[in-house]
Amino acid sequence: MRRRLSPLCVGVALVACEQPNVPPARFDFAISPDRQWSGGIVTLRSAFFSGRDSLPLVLAGADTARLTRIDDSTVTFTLPVGPSGGVELALVNRQGTEELGAVDRVGQSGRVDLTPAPQVGLVATTRGTNPMFVGAAAGPAGYEVVEVDPVTATAHLRPGLRTPGGYYGVGITYRPDRFLLRDSTDTLKVWQLWPTPQPVSALPLFRTGHLRLGAQMTDTTWLFSQSHWTNTVGPTSLSFLPTEDAWNLFISPRGDRVAMALVGTSLSGAPVFDARTGDTAFTAPAVGAVQWAEFSADGGVLYLLGAAHYQYMLADSIYVLDATNGQRLGARDLPDSLTALTLARDPTRDLLFVQGYRTCGPRVVVYQASTLTLLGEMAGGGTIASCNNYTWSGSMAVDRVRQKLYLLWVGGAEPAPLWTFDLLP
Fold first, then answer.
1. Of 146, 183, 190, 423, which is most buried by a Cβ count within 10 Å?
2. What is the pLDDT of residues 89-140, one digit of tens each?
3. Cα(32)–Cα(90) distance, rounded to whole angstroms?
4. pLDDT in tens, 65-88
C-alpha cells in the first residue's frame, strides 16, 4: 500500500513551509504488510524519515504507537492489540494528523457463551474436517461427557458416559474419535463417540479403579496415572514412574510418543513415553514441570510449555525438543505478565499459539514455530471468571479449512466462553 503525504513543517521541510509561494514537497509512504497479526510489526518506508533526529508518533485507530528506526528511510511500529478489522494509520504532527492509509488487523472475530459448559480438562480433537472439543460437566452421576463443536458453536451432553477419574477429563486414545470413558455401570471401556456412541473394547484389568488419567497409546499399550505415579502396560513390559499430579496427556500424530502435563517429578526431567512399547523414550532435559504439550504435524518435534522446577504450574518458557530422542532444539522465555496455559500447533503453517491471560483477559500469543520468533498477540473480549484456576483453563483448536482459531475456556460456572480468532493465510 502506498500513500502520499505532505511533510511536517520541521527539519528538511522547514524552508518550504516558511515560503507560501513554494508548494510543499510530497513523499511516498509504503506500508507493509497490509494485513498483520494484532500486536505484530508494521513497517513504513519513505524518504520522509531521512535525516530526522526525532520521529513523529503514529496514530493507529484510537491508539498511539511509537516509531522505531531501522535505517535512514525505514521505521517500524507495533500494531496495537485489538479485534479483527481495518485500522486507520496517521502521522501525528503539531498541526494535527496526516493520513497514511490502513492495515487490516487479524485478531478476535467473535465470542459466544455455551451451555452445557464443560467444566474440567478438555481434549481438542477432530471429527472429519471439523475441530471438536471433548470435556465433562458435573452431574448427579459424576462428570458426564460434553462435546463442543466450535464451528457451529454448540455443546451437547452425553448422559451416562463419564470420565475415568472425575474432574481430570476424558481419557484419550490414538484415534481422534475414541476415548476412555466409564458407562452407567462404572465400567471403564474404550468408546467411539461418532456418529453414535458405542463401546469398542475393554481395558486391561490393572488398577483402573482410582485413576486420574488413562490413555490407549496403541492397540496393545496403555497408560494409567494417579496422584503420585504413572504406570504403562505394554505387550511385554510393565513400568512405574514417579509423577506428581499429572492431569493431561498428548499423543504424537505419528503415534510413537506420548507426553504428559504434570506438576513435577523426581526424574531428571518430565517423562515422554514410547507409545509402541510403554517404556520411557526419554526425559525432557531440565524441564521438571509441564503445563501443556504439543507435537508438530509430522510428530517430529515436541513443544513443551513449562518450567525447570515446580512453580504451581506457572509456566515461564517454551521448550522445543526432538520428539525422537529428546534433544533440545530451542527454548524461549514467555512474555512478561502473561500467565501461559496451553499450546496449539498450526497443522499446515509454521505457527505456534500460546494461550493464557493478562489481568484475567484472554490472550493468544503467536510465534513462528521453527524459530520461536514472536509474531503477534490476540486478545479475547471480556474477562475470565475463573482465571486463577491454572489447571483446567481451556483449550485451542486450529481450523485451516475456515481460517479460524477457537479458544474454549473451562473451569468456571456456566456458561463457557468460546472465542473465535481469524488467522493469516
1. 146
2. 999 977 778 899 999 999 999 999 999 988 877 899 999 999 999 999 887 7
3. 14
4. 999 999 999 999 999 999 999 999
CA-CA distance, 372 to 351, in Å (whole number)? 9
Do residues 131 and 182 touch, judged by C-beta distance below 8 A?
A: no
Q: What is the dihedral of CA 345, 33, 86, 9, to 10 degrees?
A: 140
Output the CA–CA distances (angstroms, integers) from residue 247 to 27, 111, 170, 392, in the order listed: 58, 27, 10, 9
Measured in Å, how far apart are the chain's first and last C-alpha atoms?
A: 19
Query: Contacts from 314-319 at CB under 8 Å and sequence distance 24+?
Result: 314/339, 314/390, 315/289, 315/291, 315/340, 315/341, 318/343, 318/352, 318/354, 318/367, 318/372, 319/284, 319/287
Domains of the chain plus CATH, in order, are 2-106 (2.60.40.10), 109-422 (2.130.10.10)
Q: What residues are paired with 318 via a beta bridge?
A: 305, 332
Count of C-beta atoms within a 10 Å radius of residue 65 = 18
Alpha-carbon distance of 167 to 152, in angstroms, equals 26
- Give the integer Cα–Cα distance in Å for 321 and 302: 5
Residues 6+ apart with CB under 8 A from 18: 9
Q: Let me know if 115 is exposed, middle or buried by CB neighbors in 10 A (0-12, 13-18, 19+).
A: exposed
In tens, the pLDDT along 31-78 reads 999 999 999 999 999 999 999 989 999 999 999 999 999 999 999 999
Cα–Cα dist 284/302, whole Å: 10
The Cα 402–Cα 112 span in angstroms is: 17
> For residues 269 and 284, is the Cβ–Cβ distance under 8 A?
yes
Alpha-carbon gap, residue 309 to 291, rounded angstroms:
12
3-state secondary structure labels for all residues of 163-202: CCCHHHCCEEECCCCEEEEECCCCCEEEEECCCCCEEEEE
Q: Quick one: cell of 15?
A: 524552508
